[in-house]
């Protein structure tokens, strides 16, 4: 390897190490900071465990719903079904990634709140208030995390050769059969990656959730709640426990996906 080439890759390596340390150091510090007794206390705290359980449960439901609604949308985008409106639809799909999540929460509140367009119908018709429920949490999580699944699945569908679709259709297979027998299996890794990213993003959501729901408490809201009550130690302990659980889950899922 020439001197210039070594210098080039050495420079990139140095920058990459700095970037990795920027991510890793705060997380390691978070895990190492809470005293063992404090973490145990947090694990014994029913409200803390409930909030962590809520985050894992509602985010998983969010990922499943995103799968159901996001995959069809991703397929249509990959097939350029929207014609001249393709870029507009893609922009709308990715818009939640650019909108501050407190803004997203306010926007959702105007739709699903007690006086919102949809929330008012549920409240007046069934006496059911969407805000302050698990449904509100899933709505908030899904709004901000759906783009991850759509974008990942879209890239997967685009990578499937058109000749395979033509061969399937020419042999008499239906569009539905071609979709489920050709496109889904060949794009499954991208879809699984999108599912994982969506789940991860939903777990960490705070801004939209705290405005639209607040209760039942998710882990990020519980951490914020403890922090505003000047209980930093509890916030740190819950954050550390949630981080360890999330790392374990996603390392296992990543390993399973990569082995396929």
In short:
With 260 residues, the protein is mainly alpha-helical. It is 82% helix and 0% strand.
In N-to-C order, the SSE pattern is HHHHHHHHHHHHH
Counted beta strands: 0
The residue-averaged pLDDT reads: 87
- List low-confidence stretches: none
Based on CA atoms alone, the radius of gyration comes out at 22 Å
Looking at this structure, what is the CATH superfamily of the largest domain? MetI-like
Overall form:
globular
Biggest sheet descriptor: none
Enter the CATH topology name of the largest domain: MetI-like fold
Query: What count of structural domains?
Result: 2
How far apart lie the N and C ends? 35 Å
Q: Please count the helical segments.
A: 13
Which structural class do you get from the secondary structure elements? mainly alpha
Helix amount, in percent? over 70%
Proportion in β-strands: under 5%
Give the C-level CATH assignment of the largest domain.
Answer: Mainly Alpha
């Amino acid at each position: 390897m020439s001197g210039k080439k070594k210098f080039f890759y050495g420079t990139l390596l140095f920058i990459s190490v700095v970037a990795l340390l920027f991510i890793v150091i705060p997380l390691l510090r978070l895990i190492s900071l809470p005293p063992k007794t404090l973490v145990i206390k947090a694990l014994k705290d029913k409200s803390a465990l409930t909030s962590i359980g809520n985050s894992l449960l509602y985010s998983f439901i969010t990922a499943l719903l995103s799968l159901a609604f996001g995959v069809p949308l991703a397929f249509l985008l990959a097939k350029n079904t929207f014609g001249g409106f393709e870029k507009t639809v893609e922009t709308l799909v990715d818009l939640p990634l650019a909108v501050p999540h407190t803004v997203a929460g306010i926007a959702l509140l105007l739709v699903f709140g007690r006086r919102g367009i949809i929330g008012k119908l549920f409240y007046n018709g069934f006496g059911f208030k969407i805000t302050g429920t698990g449904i509100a949490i899933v709505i908030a999580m899904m709004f901000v995390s759906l783009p991850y699944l759509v974008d990942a699945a879209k890239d997967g569908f685009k990578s499937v050769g058109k000749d395979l679709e033509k061969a399937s259709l020419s042999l008499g297979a239906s569009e539905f059969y071609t979709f489920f027998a050709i496109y889904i299996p060949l794009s499954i890794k991208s879809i699984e990656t999108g599912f994982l990213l969506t789940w991860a993003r939903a777990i960490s959501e705070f801004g939209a959730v705290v405005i639209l729901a607040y209760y039942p408490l998710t882990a990020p809201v519980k951490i914020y709640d403890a922090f505003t009550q000047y209980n930093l130690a509890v916030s740190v302990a819950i954050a550390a426990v949630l981080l360890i659980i999330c790392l374990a889950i996603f390392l296992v899922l990543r390993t399973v996906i990569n082995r396929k």
